[in-house]
Design goal:
Layout: H1 12-25, E1 54-61, E2 76-80, E3 83-84, E4 89-91, E5 97-104, H2 112-126, E6 133-139, E7 143-150, H3 153-160, H4 171-182, E8 189-196, H5 229-243, E9 247-253, H6 266-273, E10 280-283, H7 288-301, E11 304-308, E12 318-325, E13 330-332, E14 336-338
Parallel strand pairs: 5-6, 5-8, 8-9, 9-10
Antiparallel strand pairs: 1-11, 1-13, 2-3, 2-12, 4-11, 6-7, 12-14
Length: 347
Amino acid sequence: MIRHESTSTRSEHDLVSCLRAFAAILPLTFLAAPSPAHRSAAQPPAFQSRTDLVALAVTVVDAGQRPVLGLSKDAFSLTEDDRPQPIVQFTGDPVPLSLAIAIDASTSMKGRRFEYARDAVWRLLDHLAPEDEVCVYGFNDQPFVIAPWTSDVHTVKRSLLEVSPDGNTALYSTVSSALGALATSHHRRQAMVVISDGNDRDPSDNPMYRGPALTSPLDVAPGPDPLSPSRRRLIPLLDRIRLSEALIYAIGIDVPNRYGNDPLDHAALRQLTDPAGGFTEIVHADAGAVTIAERIAAELRHQYLLGFVPAHPDDGKFHRVRVTVTCPCQVRARAGFIADKRKGPQG
């Protein structure tokens, strides 16, 4: 535990600086963010952790998908590989967040659709706390950085205004790039939000498409190979998601447009988000993306952090985790973790 001692010779600013320096040294240290009404006053972290802890960001929502607040540690139960594990660290207070956003900038997003998607990103930015950081990727034929890690949301908004949609939809490459960016972030609590209206497609895939597709391109491939190029890109990405601690959310825009794109593959998006503790929401109107972004932002600000000591801390294997609560609520957390303490990001 980190203990704070008042002293007349150390200023409040010095205390905060020391805490942040210590967080950069211990990979599993969480610093709880003060509530918005008390950000000017330095407060001791409500969640401290040791290097042998696995930390889970847990979302609890009611039947209306509204965050359930005020639960105590005693309301939660946790199992690792179906065996009960004691929860040794717990907080329901805000903790600094590193958020990666990936926005589709392909041809099919031109016009009002991209404007609504951009508004959705702005809504996410408006809910970030001063202690949070964000990076934004765009993607068409390949991923590109719109804004590197920053806490200056105004700079990010200006950068988004310079993006003009065109090209294909390198969805999976962008998710992989964003996971790489999260590995270099400053905070241990991490999340990713993907906004797209299309299926993963690389420029090299185009020769296999001749005319309007009757089925999803993810399920069709020429020749004896049963996997499409997109499916072959998805498989290693799913492995990488299991290695990450980031929550992943997706907003899928499934609206017909004049570019004749294939039907949105809902299941492929859910393969990215559900094991990672997030969710995929499909909207059938362009403006719906903004509404879902608001819901994601509220969820990210009202989560619980649970810490436990794994039974096999460094065996390099995947271990299933399940979190339950005593109230009749829905609980979301990542499906498991890789027991390898060497991989933990900083923050």
